[in-house]
Amino acid sequence: MSQYTFSGGIHPYDGKELSKDKPLKEVLPKGELVYPVSQHIGAPAKPVVAVGDEVKVGQLIAEAGGFVSANIFATVSGKVKAIEPRRVPVGDMVNSIIVENDGKYEEVEYPTPKPFEELTKEEIIAAVKNAGIVGMGGAGFPTHVQLSPKDPGKIEFVIANCAECEPYLTSDYRRMVENPDLLIGGMQCVLKLFDNAKGIIAIEDNKPDVIESIGKMVANEPRIEVYAMKTKYPQGSERHLIYACTKRAINSKMLPADAGCIVDNCDTLIAINAAVRENRPLMTRVVTVTGEAINDPRNFIVRCGTNYAELIEEAGGFKVEPEAIISGGPMMGFSLFDLNIPVTKTSSALLCLPKDPVKGLQATACINCGRCVEACPEKLIPSMLATYAEHEDYEEFNRLFGVECIECGSCSYVCPAKRQLCQAIKSMKRLSMNKARAEAAAAKAKAEAEAAKQAESKEGGEK
Prior knowledge:
Elements: E1 25-26, E2 33-36, E3 46-47, E4 54-55, E5 60-63, E6 72-73, E7 78-87, E8 93-101, H1 121-130, H2 143-146, E9 157-161, H3 171-178, H4 180-191, E10 198-204, H5 208-217, E11 224-229, H6 238-246, E12 261-265, H7 266-278, E13 284-290, E14 298-303, H8 308-314, E15 324-327, E16 334-335, E17 349-353, H9 371-375, H10 382-390, H11 394-399, H12 410-414, H13 421-462
Parallel strand pairs: 1-14, 9-10, 9-12, 10-11, 13-17
Antiparallel strand pairs: 2-8, 3-5, 4-7, 5-6, 7-8, 13-14, 15-16, 15-17
């Protein structure tokens, strides 16, 4: 049994056998490409092209709108057709740059990179920033910000999150099978930024072949080691991966850097390698198209902006009409009602299921069995938090640390009463955080008004 684990968690059916053994296949988009200017946490990118402009592959089309933001690049050649709101996987309408693909794929010339050995730390971070790289495991946090902690000397661990604990997803596995050198190269790039850090490639122990092969490849790398993690969901959660690897705990008010850690997804590290060693921007990612409703489940190398419907076509179409189509995995993904949606930097999978596993479920009263408590990786009491959420009891919800929920869905999965615990807690968490921000803003405004009033009174008295 692997020693690298955490308390709580579940073991759902993983469905990985559907796609894990098929090689990566590159997809060339056919129709228009849609580039939302918000594909990351932080300020939206600002378009630097106008309707009617001709663009090439690798050309900057939207620049970062602030420090916490990210550049966006064209992934095809063609003409800018429109700049208008389009729907993204989470359901929001986001301002987007629409490019009509001319099918020529003409590419810009990238600057000749300096030899890796000659690069300074500042040049590495600049390359990552210029490439528009964000966390590709789902969060979308701009990577250049993550790689710029206040005190780099206190970073002791750089962790490659290759656990891939979400059911059905196999994109990281295929990357590790086919591109392990690029993963290791990305780890070397990040380690060059942190002199005191050890590199950990964390892989769940249900992938023994890549644990062995990558372990051999890093055998002579004094600063890199492969950790075999116990297979359990949500092993890939940032908090729990850090704890499993280092026994250091963080909460919602902390960053991994506060625990001396940097955590990057497998695909993110591969993108870092391309940016630093080749000066190539982030333009593609691997997407798992899978599920029992798909004819040919597999992993595709996809250009950002590609329409989801084209991926279904590449996977042979539907075997049966799906009841549920999910962007991402079944535990933390977003249910879709339309396939006319673009692949973004944070798109990981398209899951198509013949039967909706939650459709028609009837919730009954809590039987106080405690299974949700046992499963919760954050050691919360989901049954009580959901009840407080249903009654909008902010005080009790916060007293039981509801904002610490990571929204993994483990509690809902194990609940015999079929209560939608995670959804209730997730909604209340958003309301609670918004309420706290509003109260803080009101308190700040009141303090500023009182300070201004006192200053005015003092000035009047002096006259």
